[in-house]
Amino acid sequence: MEKISKIQANTLIKIPEGKLEEFKQLAIKHTKLAREKDTGTLKHDWFLNSDQTECVVREEFTSEKALIEHYINTSPLQGLWGDFSIDHAKLFGDLSPQLLEMLKGPNISPVKLYSFFLGLD
Predict the structure, then answer these.
(1) Owning domain of residue 35
(2) What is the pTM of this model?
(3) What's the CA gap between 81 and 1, in Å, rounded?
């Protein structure tokens, strides 16, 4: 198996009743920071379900370094997400021990990790 350098992330966020507009404004600010500051973010897409109570965020980064840069760049907003629960967060790729240790931090939601197995490339 060949290692891949790109990292993908999928996160499911629950939106409480009455918090949709607040959620949308935070998502816009988050994406604006990523657009203006990130250098290695390839994808940063937000998808709402039909009743707008859940959102899936799909991200792709050129490398682990780009993922860390994104986290740092968007960290000013981290404390504002308190009303929204992360149902699951999944990272796809080959992650270093340093990043795995960083993901154990006190402000990090539990993350499921998936290593590359097989693909078209």
Answers:
(1) 7-114
(2) 0.86
(3) 38
Q: Say whether pLDDT at 10 is over 90.
A: yes
**Would you say residue 27 has pLDDT above 70?**
yes
The whole-angstrom separation of Cα 110 and Cα 71 is 15
> Within 10 A of 61 (CB to CB), how many other CB atoms are there?
25
Exposure class string for 91-108: b at 16+ Cβ within 10 A, else e: bbbbbeeebeeebeeeee
Residue 1: CB partners within 8 Å, gap ≥ 6?
A: 116, 117, 118
User: Hunting for tokens 């897409």 — which residue is that?
Assistant: 45
Give how many domains the chain has, as a whole number: 1
Q: Which residue type does 73 have?
A: N
Rounded CA-CA distance 6/41 in Å is: 10
